[in-house]
């Protein structure tokens, strides 16, 4: 069977909406009124200043994902683990200066975890797609966090392989990621037939590199109708 390469965030599970909902809940619990746009500006600035964005294990990790990443489970280097925790502390110290940063970090992770779930159409669609195709998940993020999301969403068993930017050390839009996916396909003796995902920049680039169709997903919408013309081999 041919392989469908499927994105995770904002394709199978909510990301941007869940991010905003989690932060709104967090701020509300502590009676903070900072606008979300300012929150994410602070997070982006601190993430850029952390020096961690270029670490291979954190390739493709966004500032908002870094806020609920377990850096001890993500990177083996104690110095990088400390830098990751320091990033989270700096963000919470700026957003909620009257709240202990460790308490804020743990609470935000808990809130965000509760919002990890598949879109309503996803379980049935994956079951249907698996009848005619092998399913691989291809996603940007840290290896720990993306696998944690798959576990929380109950989607892990659907995929024969999971390829994560933090594991590869390159983002999904980059050649190194494309080469890693192609190498894994070749080792298994299978061929890709399509990339399914919401992003033209990352999913579209992977599809172009593999010379297959990009089925662009509108977040929250089942793309199964667009797969009818996709061959099974």
Notable traits:
2 domains; alpha/beta; 5 strands; 233 residues; Rossmann fold; 5-stranded parallel β-sheet
Report a brief summary of the structure.
51% of the residues lie in helices and 10% in strands.
Overview of the molecule:
With 233 residues, the protein is of the alpha/beta class. The protein has two domains: 3-14 and 118-227, HAD superfamily/HAD-like (Rossmann fold, 3-Layer(aba) Sandwich), CATH 3.40.50.1000; 16-114, no CATH class. It is built from eleven helices and five strands; from the N terminus they run E-H-H-H-H-H-H-H-E-H-E-H-H-E-H-E. It has helices at residues 16-29, 36-49, 63-66, 71-74, 78-95, 101-114, 122-132, 143-153, 165-168, 175-188, 200-210; strands at 3-6, 134-139, 161-164, 192-197, 213-216. Strands 3-2-1-4-5 form a five-stranded parallel beta sheet, sandwiched between helices. Strand 2, helix 8 (143-153) and strand 3 form a beta-alpha-beta unit. Helix 1 (16-29) crosses helix 6, helix 2 runs antiparallel to helix 5 and helix 5 (78-95) crosses helix 6 (101-114). The termini are close together.
């Amino acid at each position: 069977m041919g392989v469908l390469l499927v994105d995770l965030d904002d394709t199978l599970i909510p990301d941007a909406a869940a991010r905003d909902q989690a932060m709104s809940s967090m701020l509300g619990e502590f009676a903070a009124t900072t606008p979300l746009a300012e929150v994410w500006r602070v997070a982006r600035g601190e993430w850029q200043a952390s020096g961690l964005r270029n670490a291979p294990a954190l390739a493709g990790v966004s500032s908002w994902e870094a806020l609920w990443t377990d850096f001890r489970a993500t990177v083996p280097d104690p110095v990088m683990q400390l830098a990751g925790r320091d990033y989270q502390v700096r963000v919470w110290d700026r957003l909620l200066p009257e709240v202990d940063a460790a308490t804020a970090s743990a609470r935000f992770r808990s809130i965000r975890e509760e919002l990890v779930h598949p879109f309503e159409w996803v379980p049935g669609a994956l079951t249907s797609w698996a009848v005619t195709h092998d399913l691989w998940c291809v996603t940007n993020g840290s290896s720990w966090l993306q696998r944690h999301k798959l576990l929380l969403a109950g989607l892990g068993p659907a995929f024969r392989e999971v390829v994560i930017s933090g594991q590869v050390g390159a983002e999904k839009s980059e050649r190194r990621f494309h080469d890693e996916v192609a190498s894994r396909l070749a080792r298994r003796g299978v061929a890709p037939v399509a990339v399914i995902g919401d992003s033209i920049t990352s999913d579209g680039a992977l599809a172009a590199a593999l010379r297959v169709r990009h089925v662009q997903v509108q977040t929250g919408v089942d793309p199964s109708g667009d797969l009818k013309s996709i061959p099974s081999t």
